[in-house]
Amino acid sequence: MKVAVGCDPNAQAYKEEMIEFMKGLGHEVSDFGSEDPIYANVAVEVAEAVAAKKYDRGVLFCGTGIGVMLAANKVKGAYAANTLNVYSAKRACLSNNCNIITLGSQVTGNMLAKEIIEAYLDCEYEYTGRSGPKVDAIVGYETKSMK
């Protein structure tokens, strides 16, 4: 799987450890950087690349994961979820078809982050009668409101 990754300067070391972990799982990882103190810039860059289908998924990091999630979700076609545990990572994929997850380097320990990332990258969204119409509604609203 091709994964786009980015972070703010505070999460640089965390991101580098997670990149090596993802590569160890066999994923092709591209680092979009971490030098810009305005985390929204790298979050939008990753989100645009994922939404354009240049990458299968994205993983973004900042202190809490919230700021990069908010920024990424401003990009049409980007669906980012701040994941705090393995269950939410799986549901982001399986129930919500999220193409990006976000993690907080100051709130999620490295070992848990690896479990979250592995769980997220290990699943595929399947359209079902339960989740499909909900995802359709989100995409439909986005189509109307984000021109």
Percent of residues in helices comes to 40-55%
Q: Quickly name the level 1 CATH class.
A: Alpha Beta
**CATH homologous superfamily caption:** Sugar-phosphate isomerase, RpiB/LacA/LacB
> What kind of sheet is the major sheet?
5 strands, parallel
Output the structural class.
alpha/beta
* CATH-derived topology: Ribose 5-phosphate Isomerase B, Chain: A
Q: What's the architecture, going by CATH? A: 3-Layer(aba) Sandwich
Unreliable stretches (pLDDT < 50, length at least 5) are none
Concise synopsis of the structure shown:
By secondary structure, the chain is an alpha/beta fold. Helices cover 46% and strands 16% of the residues.
Characterization of the model:
With 147 residues, this protein is α/β, with parallel strands linked by helices. It is 46% helix and 16% strand. The protein has a five-stranded parallel sheet with strand order 2-1-3-5-4, with helices on both faces. Helix 4 links the parallel strand 4 and strand 5. Helix 1 (12-24) crosses helix 5 (110-121) and helix 2 (39-51) crosses helix 3. It is globular, with a radius of gyration of 14 Å. The termini are far apart. The model has no long low-confidence stretch (mean pLDDT 95).
